[in-house]
Amino acid sequence: MALMTRLQKSSEDNANDITKNLLTLQFESALTEEEKELLHLRARSHAIAVYQCAQATYFVEILKEIRQLKNQLKNPNFKRTRILQDDKKDPLLIGILGCGRLGSQIAHCLLTYGKLNPSELQISTRRPETQEYLQQRGVDCYYDNVRLVSSTHVVFVGVLPSQLTGVADEIKDLLPSSTIMYVPTIGISLRRLRQMLDTTNIVQPEYWWPDENRHKPWNHSVNVNMALEKKDLVEKTCPICDDISDQVVMVNPKLAEVFLFAAINMCVDLNLTRQESLRALHLSMFGESDRQPLKDKLTLADFGGQDGGEEVCFPHFDLVQVTESESYITQKLSTSTDLRQAFIKRYWQVFEEYLHIRIYGNII
Questions:
Q1: Which of 135, 258, 274, 338 has a C-alpha 20 to 30 A away from that of 16?
Q2: What family does the Swiss-Prot or TrEMBL record give for this protein (predicted)?
Q3: Is pLDDT at 195 greater than 70 in this prediction?
């Protein structure tokens, strides 16, 4: 509570909107009544950007933690602990293909809340010279899409839908099957993406916006990075958020399941057994620890398997099929209160850890 109070005060102190009480100087004053009916689109656009950046940051954090956990999971005396931030032996390498507005926002959020080392982030853009700020921080910016997808573990595709066909033709023959393609672009179906990129290792959030909520309040004046300091707002972006009654934008809750199976695919690439993979998921996605063990857990049976196969790896899962079909995991995430609450808590914790470091100088 003290942390949130200090952050709220800090945000209020930084509010410098000189037009706040001067109605004639505000953007809306020059609009016709018909044009004002479209103002909700501005809030919706901002909300989508916040959702995309928050979900991308959480996804990167869980994958990064799994890579850091790899060696500990092989230890028979392994203890569930999350103090792993100094272990950089196997870093998660992130690529952003196309660094327009969305790509830049994701990059800044990953460096801030995802605590990503700039040396672990690469950006391929037609105008790398425009990314001077990111380059000064140590981010490698260039224009070589093939190099990007072949040298990173996760690629965020930030190009326009009209450009994606050409980019896909350029990279698909050299795209490693282990590379996770995260495509936040709205307007191209998942099946079409699978055909274009010739891979099933694709994550694509699905958003929609209830018409009855279009005039719900949403503060679009704050930048995306600062928006993610607010717990109530971040929790709205969680794929399995409990309260959806006033959402300006909604996300398909299947995204949580896709994150889970994408994480398993990375576990397979790290040669983790099924049992080790489940332990990694419980720790990274649900925040389990020795002090706070989960009451309900994922089991091999939830993946359609039987006990006794713990010492072999999972197969690689088709993320497109996962998105489009129901499974035991779908049922488990929708019915297990313990798992849902643990997921939501861990989701916010990704952002809370950064805020705690900023305010108090140490991790939670």
A1: 135
A2: Belongs to the pyrroline-5-carboxylate reductase family.
A3: yes
